[in-house]
Specification:
binds FE2/S2 (inorganic) cluster, 23% helix, nine-stranded mixed beta sheet, Rieske Iron-sulfur Protein, 24 strands, alpha+beta, eight-stranded mixed beta sheet, binds flavin-adenine dinucleotide, globular, single chain
């Protein structure tokens, strides 16, 4: 049985080197927790600065969202420029966009210098008017982008689309194969002497003093570190601060056979939720159908994506791969990168990347090592995790009302009358007196029973039938069928159900 997600992304055929679990206590200068693109990029930058770095990963390297992404490298994917300008002053928006633009340059430089073969290539991106798009939306977006310093060319026909559809061209964006890039970074980390442990889940972070952390692992081996970087996509060290300022969404991706010669471009549309499209080795990759974690929509997201693709593209063959993943949407659209908003002076976090996680991870690798070195960084204020969500109060209130509503699940009944009704390889919620249990029926008479109460802040987990996991609709924690957390903020296992 899979310990993590059930589906595999198109990238996962790349073999990455294997690392052992931790087997002894370790003393290090910086402990980086989480080996996705953030963890690897931050560890790389720290090691190049001469720091002694230890990297911990609870499963395999790249098994988080960085192995499930679609890897568009772009300075705009999800948020409208007009929304960005509504929430932030012009200078902030300009710096924010420039940070993402130069993150693509940084990746390109690393690819060249380190000779990483990861199919990196510069391509143009196109935003096109999706169904039900507001009148003049593209025109307004172009004007807003121009204010932010971006010149977008209008086109009458967006490439690849069946119908003649207007769009805006973003010149000189990029794409790569995320796991090949991470494999290259891993080789650099090994050459730089970084110590790496896989299958080593962090279960607690303590601070005996504000300047020293004790990182406890599931193997009862501890790491003492002067600095900690929590690069777990959703931070596992903070209970409230960040999780009330960002919302967890699931998103879905599929690939189709796409024979023939096609212009290699990135596409995304103006629908809400939006669709995102790219090409990789004769396959068309299409993503979208986002919804709040644990709040499953009507219908099958993969079928919906297939329907949308066949309506909009010609020459699309069989559906080949399908998978889902998670993104964290910050209330004011800018990620949270920097010092943890607590009293411990030595802990740093990187989260809230929305659909721009590749470039955000690289931005984190520029800001955090600089702060650890005790130096200022010009972007630190913009991405400061301490900033209030005040710039987008309405979104903040809406998302938190949604969270509050999820706690009414404490009062609802069972999904089924008896465990025998649960189909094999499926989970259901059952009421047990005042509390609720989540029951997974593996096969025959083999059942796994756990408390359905999320160990983060007591939400009731829901069954995710695509990934075969228990997902918490409050702040996006996810647990496998054994009750082990596979996605934060929860750090502890679901309790046994007696
Ligand atoms: C379908 C999809 C499409 C996307 N498309 C794009 C795109 O086109 N462009 C773009 O820029 N972004 C995109 N994103 C977003 C992007 O993939 C993510 O934001 C980014 O990969 C996050 O990287 P990360 O390193 O911060 O997190 P992750 O890659 O999730 O890495 C975090 C790691 O921490 C580990 N971990 C968690 N808890 C613990 C613990 N307790 N102890 C030890 N380790 C732990 C996890 O196992 C994981 O490996 C997409 C995401 C999805 C799901
Ligand atoms: S993720 Fe916060 S209560 Fe479950």
């Amino acid at each position: 049985m899979s310990m993590k997600d059930r589906t595999d992304s198109v990238w996962e055929t790349v073999g990455l080197p294997v690392f052992s679990e931790i087997r002894e206590d370790v003393r290090t200068e910086v402990c980086v927790i989480g080996a996705g693109l953030s963890g690897l990029s931050i560890a790389y930058e720290l090691a190049r600065r001469g720091k002694k770095v230890t990297l911990l990963e609870s499963f395999r390297i790249g098994s988080g969202q960085s192995g499930r992404t679609t890897a568009h490298l772009s300075c705009q994917l999800e948020e409208e420029f007009s929304d960005l300008l509504r929430m932030h002053d012009l200078s902030t928006v300009r710096k924010f966009l420039e940070a993402h633009r130069s993150a693509i340059d940084i990746i390109e430089n690393i690819v060249e210098q380190e000779e990483i073969h990861c199919d990196f290539r510069r391509v143009d991106g196109y935003l096109f008017a999706g169904e039900g798009s507001r009148e003049n939306l593209l025109l307004k977006e172009r004007e807003a982008a121009m204010k932010c310093g971006l010149i977008l060319d209008p086109v009458l026909k967006t490439p690849l689309l069946k119908e003649k559809t207007a769009g805006l061209r973003f010149a000189n964006q990029a794409q790569f194969h995320p796991l090949k890039y991470m494999k290259g970074l891993l080789q650099c980390l090994q050459d730089l002497g970084v110590t790496i442990y896989e299958n080593t889940r962090v279960t607690e972070i303590e601070n005996p003093t504000p300047d020293l952390s004790l990182i406890r692992t599931e193997h009862k081996k501890d790491i003492q570190a002067d600095f900690v970087v929590v690069a777990t996509d959703s931070p596992i060290n903070t209970r409230f601060h960040i999780h009330t300022k960002q919302a967890a969404y699931r998103t879905y991706a599929v690939t189709f056979d796409y024979p023939g010669e096609h212009e290699n471009v990135l596409l995304w549309d103006t629908e809400d939720p939006y669709h995102y499209v790219r090409i990789h080795e004769g396959k068309l990759i299409v993503g979208g159908e986002d919804h709040r974690v644990g709040q499953n929509p009507e219908g099958n997201p993969f079928e919906n994506l297939e329907h949308w693709t066949r309506k909009n593209f010609e020459g699309v063959g069989l559906m080949l791969d399908k998978w889902s993943g998670q993104v964290f949407e910050p209330a004011d659209t800018i990620g949270y990168i920097g010092k943890n908003p607590g009293t411990d002076r030595n802990i740093y976090i990187a989260t809230g990347y929305s659909g721009s996680g590749m470039t955000s991870a690289v931005i984190a690798s520029q800001i955090i090592p600089q702060l650890i070195d005790g130096r200022a960084h010009p972007l630190a204020d913009i991405f400061d995790p301490k900033r209030p969500p005040i710039r987008n109060m309405s979104e903040f209130v809406k998302e938190n009302m949604n969270v509050a509503f999820q706690y009414t699940d404490w009062l609802t009944g069972s999904d089924v009358k008896s465990e025998e009704e649960i189909p094999e390889d499926t989970g259901c919620l059952m009421r047990h007196g005042l509390t609720k249990a989540c029951v997974y029926h593996e096969h025959g008479d083999s059942f796994e029973r756990k408390s359905a109460v999320c160990t983060h802040l007591g939400g009731i987990v829901h069954w995710n039938d695509i990934e075969k996991t228990w997902d918490c609709p409050a702040h996006g924690s996810r647990f496998n069928t054994h009750g082990t957390p596979i996605e934060g903020p929860a750090i502890s296992e679901l309790s046994p159900e007696h």
